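Notes from the 1:1 (GR / supervisor)

We went over the backlog. Supervisor wanted to see one worked example end to end before approving the batch request, so GR pasted a single chain during the call. The sequence is below; no edits were made to it. Supervisor asked that the structure be written out right there so they could see what the output format looks like.
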Amino acid sequence: MPTRGNRTKTTLMTIATRPLQTVEDFRAAVALQQTVVGERASTIWQVPHLLHVQRSGGLLLGAFGSSAQPSESLHGILIDLIAKVDDYPAHRTVAWGVSQSQRNRGIGTRLRVIERRTLQQRGIDITCWDVDPLNSSEIHIALNKLGGILTGYSQNDLGSNLDARAPGLATDSIHCEWWLDAPRVASVLDQGHALPHQQIGLHEMTVLTKTTVLPSGARGIVEWEQSPASDHVLAEIPENLADLQVRDHDAAIQWRLRSRGFMERLFQLGYLGVGLIHEGGRSFLLFKKGTRRTELGAADKR
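Structure output shown during the call:
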């Protein structure tokens, strides 16, 4: 038990979310992006870009933290451009990240919730963004916490990755759609209900992928079923992509190449990504055969 003489004083940080408005805010946003994705990443939005986003009616949000210090620090950002999806008014997120020191505090989700509220007031129907198909933490937030759905796959959009989160891997992405007023989303965020897939037993799902433990101790993908028959399909992805990169980079490359094949195949067969399931220290992306209409629960969404 600690005594009075060796107690450690803990400083709590309060997080407040507000728009990014000034040049100082924009500079802080650039610096934060550099810490999240690395200074060499080609996806960093610089100060002039952020100014154009602001002037063109896009959305720039920041999560600022302050403790005993008189100044505040930027710990999370979300940057949206104006877009259209199937003629619906939309936004496209081009940057969304949280500083390493403040992760797992719900900041990324909080930024999304404020984004949703803001865009609903503007009459926007949907926000879309791209996620690394092997990044289980981002997929968990997008699907399980926000009620988004995955609708498509794209290969190597930007060439070899300079992003510090997946160095050297092809820049594949999986497309996430977040329909802001859909019953699926409202059920999760406004009513606190579980998503439908969380009520389905694992015995009702088919595991598409076969994996094994490699000599490095990392789990690697061996093969996958080409023609799944089940409406609910589980496809394994790395539990922690950053750890896999450090432990066995060759295994990470194989995950990228082989998961590309089965994810593209599932989308072609009419599946959507609807959830992420953690089981026994492993992560499984859940695909369900269906349409936007059936998954969103809204007849007016195609």
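Supervisor's comment: The radius of gyration is 20 Å.
Batch request approved.
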